[in-house]
Amino acid sequence: MKILAFGIVKDIFSNAVIDVDCKNDSSVDDLKHMLEKKYPGLNELGSYMIAVNNEYASAGDIINENDEIAVIPPVSGG
Amino acid sequence: MNIDIKILPEPLNIPACINWVMSPECGGINVFIGTVRNVTKQKKVIRLEFEAYESMAISEMNKIAVSSFTKWPVQKILIHHRTGVLEVGEVPVVIVVAAAHRDIAFTACRYIIDTLKQIVPIWKKEVFEDGEVWVAAHP
């Protein structure tokens, strides 16, 4: 499953896109735990969100192989 | 709805932004222009670098504009945001709101920039003489 990274998360992943093994029907929370284990730098962020198909996702939302998944660190536009 | 939302890699054309919202029904046009400041927490800023998750940022900015139309009787809303490297004094964001009366234009414009800063997936990196930092990333 491909995960898009932006801002500081690109630095944490050392990449703009990573590929993770995440089984179908995993929740957003499952994905976050998995990512935090693999990339402890995520725990040092003030907070971060997961976006699924261009929408902010909630902890219990289910993700699938074909979804566009992105890690959204605290935003700072404007 | 009269909404114009763009994310652009080149300098924003402020007069064209204002022209786009001008209309005979509107007695008040409120313009917010964000600019790159030369100092943050007493440190000299050399430049900023903006990055956007474009598809989602456009979608979130559109939601903010649509919700403004549901909250207030506004006529036109324009939101343009830059990406890439910006020097001090350059303009990362322009928001223009037109309404029949000024109160609504002021209120909606403030709501749009405040909400944009909270939720739209755009990030800036501040580059100093001795390093760089992604703004707001750490508590």
UniProtKB/TrEMBL annotation, chain A:
- What cellular-component terms does GO give this entry? molybdopterin adenylyltransferase complex
Q: Nucleotide-binding: present as a keyword of the record?
A: yes
Kindly give the CDD domains that the UniProt entry links to this protein.
Ubl_MoaD
A GO BP term here is:
Mo-molybdopterin cofactor biosynthetic process
Output one GO MF annotation.
nucleotide binding
* Origin superkingdom: Bacteria
Which SUPFAM superfamilies does the record match to this protein? MoaD/ThiS (SSF54285)
Q: Which UniProt keywords apply?
A: Nucleotide-binding
User: Could you confirm whether the keyword Transcription regulation appears in this record?
Assistant: no
The record's similarity note reads: Belongs to the MoaD family.
Q: What is this protein called?
A: Molybdopterin synthase sulfur carrier subunit
From TrEMBL, chain B:
Which EC class is this protein assigned? transferase
Q: Tell me if Heme is a UniProt keyword of this record.
A: no
Which reaction equation describes what this protein catalyses? 2 [molybdopterin-synthase sulfur-carrier protein]-C-terminal-Gly-aminoethanethioate + cyclic pyranopterin phosphate + H2O = molybdopterin + 2 [molybdopterin-synthase sulfur-carrier protein]-C-terminal Gly-Gly + 2 H(+)
Known Gene3D superfamilies for this protein? Molybdopterin biosynthesis MoaE subunit
Entry's Gene Ontology BP terms: Mo-molybdopterin cofactor biosynthetic process
The Enzyme Commission number assigned here is 2.8.1.12
CDD domains referenced in this protein's UniProt entry, alphabetically: MoaE
For this protein, the record's InterPro entries field holds: MoaE_sf, Mopterin_biosynth_MoaE
SUPFAM superfamilies linked: Molybdopterin synthase subunit MoaE (SSF54690)
Tell me which UniProt keywords the record has, alphabetically.
Molybdenum cofactor biosynthesis
Keyword Lyase assigned to the entry: answer is no
Q: Which GO terms describe its molecular function?
A: molybdopterin synthase activity
Q: In which pathway does it act?
A: Cofactor biosynthesis; molybdopterin biosynthesis
The subunit field of the Swiss-Prot or TrEMBL record says: Heterotetramer of 2 MoaD subunits and 2 MoaE subunits. Also stable as homodimer. The enzyme changes between these two forms during catalysis.
Family from the record: Belongs to the MoaE family.
* Protein known as: Molybdopterin synthase catalytic subunit
Source species, please?
Ginsengibacter hankyongi
